[in-house]
Amino acid sequence: MFQTFPTIVSLLLSVIGLGFIVWLVIRSLKRSNDPLKLGFKIIFTVPFVVFCIWAGVKAGAAGPLIIVFMAIVMSYLWTPHLGELLASPLTDILDGGNEEPEKKPQYSAALARRKTNRPLEAVVAIREQLAKFPNDFEGVLLLANIQAEDMNDLAGAEITLNNFCNSPDAPDRQVAAALTQLADWHLKITADADAARAALRQLVTRFPDTVIALQAEQRLAHLGETEKILLQHHDPQAIAVPEGVKNIGLLDSTEFLKPKEIEPGKLAAVYVKHLERHPHDAEVREKLAVIYARDFKRLDLATLELEQMINETRHSPKQIAGWLNQLANFQIELGADVATVTATLKKIAEDFPDRPDAEIAQRRLARLRQEFAGKKETPKVKIGVYEHNIGLKYGPPRQQ
Fold first, then answer.
1. CA of 126: how far to CAs of 106, 119, 131, 133, 175, in Å?
2. CA-based radius of gyration for the chain
3. CATH classification of 266-386 is 1.25.40.10, yes or no?
4. Reported pTM
5. Residues 70-86: what's their mean pLDDT?
């Protein structure tokens, strides 16, 4: 039993050594710039070593000379490869080794042709790359850009982007970028607000209850204003300028010349109607909250409007923290107690502990009683005929 143990150990060592040699040969063949030459060395080495060992045993006293000759020949053949093997861990860090670079599309030729006003040739070059790398977003967007802006082919650009968006493997962020760009082109190139609206609606439908949908809804809410500006730019109309006041320097007062401010109640009613159609328009809702607080001294109504935006988790932390600070300001101005304002500011610190807003809120909490000093209870102002519409809450968004 004790005699068989060394035999087993020798056999295992031989197997390990043979495995290492096989691994070294395969690795060398894969990394070699000339595998044919390396293969010839391997084929030559095996019988040469066997012959030299056999000859050394047969030669007796001259055997060591044969072994030395074999070592010289082997060192000449294999020293470069052994040196490369030992140095490769360091050289691979510096030059990346023999790994093939990642294959990716090249659009330099297309960009060069676009710069020299050869859009058709640029399109051909892009399509060649897209044939190798289908649905590469950089190439798709570049192709659509050339079609829309250089070739005045917005319909073709729309087909290009829609084909990409309809691909099941298209990432959400890239789809959102493509449809947003398409909406921008419809407004910029053709002033077609309906087509832009359709592109933005796709975002709302495709990504419901996401930040992408919320941003699209915000744009839809103000698309009418954008349309008016674009139409004026594309088709400018003559503006009638009324005749100026004569002898203005002789008048006792010019107060009547100042533009009249819109009555807050009427403006609030306009905002309420707008929010009925676009309940996610944060800009208008914030303006409505300011009117309730500053003009009508109605903290309850201002709070309802701000809380609807604060509780919408799709808004950014910066926006939510800003509305909480605004709510705290209204609470201090309109007579809320210290506990109420403290709860509002603590919500900033608790919800966004890693943001600078939390530190600012903590500083405000430390000097909160100073802010209350000198504040007097503010009387409420009745809104009158507009009161039945105010305090609009979120409901199911209506189709834009």
1. 9, 10, 9, 10, 19
2. 39
3. yes
4. 0.62
5. 71
